[in-house]
Structure formats: structure tokens, C-alpha cells
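Query structure, 111 C-alpha cells:
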């Protein structure tokens, strides 16, 4: 027997999460823009994907996360994620920036 996944059946279940994200944006309008996702599978969690690793620091400061709670995780061949997790008003906020450790080889570049 498998456990049933508890998921939201209406968008209203995500309202609190959306309100928390809106509040962060209102209090910190200078934060770097992000790809923001919440899901019916995790209605009290929001994922904040940033374009650049340097964008993580202002988000860390805005969410009052300790520097030592920011981690670098391998995410495939030559790819990593700089990330942290915070709780804001009982909502889990996952912030991360995926990037390459080295620039991928240019197609047809001479060795």
C-alpha cells in the first residue's frame, strides 16, 4: 500500500503561500527577479529560482538566513546549485541558483 499524496484541490489552498511571496516582494522590491513556483503537491512551499549565483546573497539577507545555511550542491556534470531554505510566516521558501562551475565547451572550439 502506498501513502496518498496530500495535495491541494483548489488554488485557495495556495493563497497563504502566494501572499507570503507578495509580502516579500513588497518589503524588498530591490531583490533580484526570480522564477517562482508553488504547486498543488506542496501548497505551503515556494521555490525561488534565481538566474545567477550572486542573486542568492540579497535573498539570504532579506530572509534572515545565516551564511552557513547556504550550501553548494552538485547538480549534474559540472553543474551546481547554490541554495538555502527558510521559513517565512510558516511557509517554506526554497531559494536556489543553478549554474556551471566552468563554462561549457563551445561547439567546434579548437583544443
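Result returned for the query:
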Amino acid at each position: 500500500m502506498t501513502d496518498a499524496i496530500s495535495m491541494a484541490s483548489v488554488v485557495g489552498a495556495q493563497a497563504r503561500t502566494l501572499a507570503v511571496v507578495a509580502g516579500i516582494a513588497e518589503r524588498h522590491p530591490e531583490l533580484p527577479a526570480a522564477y517562482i513556483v508553488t504547486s498543488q503537491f506542496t501548497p505551503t512551499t515556494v521555490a525561488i529560482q534565481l538566474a545567477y549565483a550572486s542573486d542568492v546573497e540579497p535573498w539570504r539577507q532579506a530572509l534572515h538566513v545565516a551564511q552557513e545555511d547556504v550550501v553548494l550542491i552538485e547538480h549534474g556534470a559540472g553543474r551546481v546549485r547554490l541554495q538555502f531554505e527558510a521559513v517565512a510566516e510558516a511557509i517554506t521558501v526554497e531559494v536556489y541558483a543553478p549554474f556551471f562551475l566552468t563554462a561549457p565547451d563551445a561547439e567546434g572550439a579548437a583544443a
